[in-house]
Design goal:
single chain; 216 residues; alpha/beta; 4-stranded parallel sheet; 4 strands
């Protein structure tokens, strides 16, 4: 799938409240829905995204993509652009494609950083899932959780991905998080060679699609 697809869907998830949020009674803004609170994710402050790169092993049927992959994403490896999506830490001069986009569009009020999951035994290998296992988000997260331990490229711990307390749609978001047990705020799954989802353009879910390393 194209990188632009995932940038769009992250953008939609975060800012959909601007279009769909309900204007609350001004006297009770903190208790009712309001577009300024964002739809599912916050629209200000700092959010840290967990990225999972995946690859389908076609044990049945034919791989819809070239078996060797592409120049920018070879088969059996992580994409060449893996370090270009997000800045690792906040700064006033962001370089990552997604980090820079949100920094500029929010005039520096919304900081989107991130890091990607790696297999400590084989750091350049994506999560692999068999086509015969019925490819779903839940299955991909289960496979990711089979890595020996939770490790990211820049050595973040899973707690670093829970900065916001879960709240209802359009309601105020609170940081630091008081979720117990912790909840990973946002997981972005990017698959190299999949026909899932079947609309060929990606999708987002406002609910937990499963657990990663035991956490929703």
């Amino acid at each position: 799938m194209k990188l632009t697809v995932f940038i769009f869907f992250l953008f939609f998830t975060v800012l959909a409240g601007i279009s769909f949020g309900q204007r609350a009674n001004r006297d009770s803004i903190k208790s009712l829905q309001d577009s300024r609170n964002g739809y599912i994710l916050p629209v200000s402050g700092h959010i840290h995204i967990l990225v999972v790169f995946a690859e389908v092993v076609y044990d049945t049927g034919q791989d819809p993509c070239s078996p060797e992959g592409s120049k920018d994403w070879p088969s059996g490896s992580l994409p060449k652009w893996k370090d270009k999506l997000f800045d690792t830490y906040p700064s006033h001069n962001p370089k990552g494609i997604i980090t820079k986009f949100f920094y500029e569009s929010s005039f520096g009020n919304y900081i989107v950083t991130g890091d990607y999951l790696v297999n400590k035994k084989n750091p350049d290998a994506p999560v692999k899932i068999l086509a015969s296992e019925k490819i779903t988000t839940e299955k991909i997260l289960i496979k990711a959780s089979e890595f020996k331990e939770f490790t990211t490229r820049n050595n973040f711990i899973i707690n670093d991905f829970d900065k916001w307390t879960l709240s209802h749609v359009g309601h105020p978001k609170h940081t630091p998080s008081t979720d117990a047990p912790l909840l990973v705020d946002h997981v972005m799954i990017i698959i190299r060679n999949s026909t899932y989802p079947y609309n060929s353009s990606g999708w987002t879910s406002s609910r937990s699609p499963g657990r990663i390393f035991g956490y929703e």
